[in-house]
Design brief:
By secondary structure, chain A is an alpha/beta fold. Helices cover 43% and strands 19% of the residues of chain A. The chains are: A alpha/beta, B alpha+beta.
Amino acid sequence: MAKTIMIVDDSASIRKVVRLTLESQGFDVIDATDGVEALKKLNGVKIHLLITDVNMPNMDGITLVQEAKKIPAYKFTPMMMLTTEAGDEKKMQGRASGAKAWLVKPFQPPILLNAVSKLILP
Amino acid sequence: MNDETDYLAEGRQVFAEESRELLQQAEYILLKLEDEPDNDELINDLFRTIHTIKGSAGLFSFDDVVAFTHVAESVMDQLRDKEIFLDDDLMCLLLDSHDQISQLVAHALDNTEEPIGDSLREKGEEVLKNLHQYLDVKTPHSSVVMIAESELKVLTESEVALELTESVINDYWHISIRFNRNVLANGMDPLSFFRYLDTVGNITHMTTLTTDLPSLDDINPEESYLGFEISLDSPASKETIAEVFEFLMEDCLLQILAPRSKLSDYAQLIYALPEENRAIGETLVASSALTEDELLKVLECQNADINKHTIVTDENITLDKITNILMDDAIIDKNITGASTPDTALDKQKQVKEVEQQSVRVNAEKLGDLINLVGELVISSAHTELKAKQTEQAELLETVENLTRLVEEIRDATLSLRMVQIGDTFNRFKRVVRDVSKEMGKKIDLKIVGGDTELDKTVVEKISDPLMHLIRNSLDHGIEKPDIRTANGKSETAIVKLEAYHDSGSIVIEITDDGAGLNPEILTAKAIENGIISANQQLTLPEIHRLIFAPGFSTAKEITNISGRGVGMDVVNKNIDALRGQISVNSELGVGTSFTIRLPLTLAIIDGFQVQVGKSSYVIPLDLVEECIALDEQQAKKGEYINLRGEVMPYIHLSEIFNDEDSLNSTPDKKGRRYNIVVVVYAGQKAGLVVDELLGEHQTVIKPLGKVFQNLKGISGATILGSGEVAMIIDVPGLIRRLV
């Protein structure tokens, strides 16, 4: 069965490219525009990886990761930050929130796939 | 790789739309910030829009955009952190930056290989120079990669001056890894990393270390207790191999030794690993990383460097401690946010709003196709209705009636798909007003009313330029300088009002200013000078005001770069005409000027009222029809006006206008002939259209007239009737203008 990845980003073009890239590798993709929508969509659905932007309206990526980790079903779900935030402070904050994987934008599709394959088996 | 370019191409299209919206939003926020410079939320929103543009642009390698946006973003970041504050200069600079980004994005999306033009680049450099003045030069933001590397080196670099300089006879990489207990809870599955490692090279040997494993009773299944010693056959660089474990950096103890490393490196490794030295040494021998001899040599040096060993482990402990402290902080943070209920309530509100505004993007072309199809559907439904009436079968008529109603609903729903709020267009003028008032030293306040009024997107697109002309004219000619205003007893700040509302099937846009108003004497003098009117012509005040729409008319004493060279107003008039709209002007000297634009709501399908004159059918837009009355013959002969319940109303015979011989010939002195008057109203002005017969409502799909007929008076288009006949659509505004 195909594995499911959730991508959360407020940029429509990034969602599009990430979705197409992942789908080409046989992943199922769920997307959300911000943390609030992501949490709403997360209810009960099995996902194998969460990829999220940091800076988003309504709820940012770091809060999203913290909140998602509180839900038992997602406690062990790998979470990756997709971001331009290269600042150490943000990184520390992100790591403390439970997202250990970071992908600094601008990423190219092969780089994304590489990072994903480190975290989950296709 | 081909696939990949495809995704990017598709993503680019999305980016085009997205960036346009984001930039518009950014401009809107900037202008709003001018009124409330301390609004943190706005500053945050601003940062985020620019940030998103940068992120997305990076994805498509729009390097010019990224480079510029990065600097602008950094300045906004400082603004967000309250290190700098928003003053007039910075506001201008940010607006300039916004414009620069817009142009860079536009250039990038043009898909040309050409570098950006000189003027654009120079402008960009100038803005960048100014932006840099706000930036703290000492804190550049690009140290991530370096930090990751230095973390690695803490564990791998040998500081110990061992004499074990000879190399081992091992051709494989050696990787030692000990996972932290919480690695699973962080979402990291060690297995997937080994799988990935296998893509970098070939794992020739792997030893699992279970020394940390507690007794079965004490095992927490959510924790990891294992360590691994791995031999890897790989041509990859050390960096590549380290990158495999990049995400695990804080969750494991990692040591990587190159093939044929020095013995001293192995010695260092053995000290650094948490297990007892001899045990680990034997593991290394077992995995053929070291030979027995090599191990012995290494262990001999053990005592000499025992101190170093403890230092390294100490470092590990401190690192762990820091992580723990951080984790605690995170928990406290959560508690704080959990306790503040007002925030949560706000979030919920936002959430509801989000749901309401959910939308699907549809290609405009598809929408156009759909509207055309619905047009055809309307025509063929009219045809069906007609045929059904001829059969006089009650059941069939009933069904057809139902069908017709549904078609009408579909028509309305489809047309509403293309309706957009005019507010976005209005908001764009805020910037114009701001820039012009700065440039000309005038104080002007732009008021927007009815921004949520909807009209057809195609109309919105075409109305934007004429509106811009009118507003610039108001700002330039209409509004006086502050000193003149105060001298005339007006408030220093002028008000320009943009208002939109619906009125009987039209949308009305009013541009009102409280400026100097139009001076009839100057207008007349100018018109005579330009040969538009003759010197002895007597004009009413409205006629004088309308002179400004005459081609080649300009009263501006000097040409400024804000309003045009007198070509503006007649072009405005033409553009609005082309939209089947009308513009009127109302002005009082010294008090102000007001332009009123009336536009049809949509350009595709309307409800029409079908009438007959002679043998031809005509359609009058139903929204403009007020009532139908019978005209008695006595009155008809009196001439051009009738008394409509005490009101004087002009009327006109359509047969005369269209020179319909059938109708005209049957007119004279035929007894018992009845005339019908359709009372139409447009812009508050009533008029009667005399027709032979009233045929009732008709859904009218407007087919534009060909170029040849474009200047035909009295006709605004054509439509196809249910019977397949063609009927002309009456240009009511045009006819009323002729009558009044």
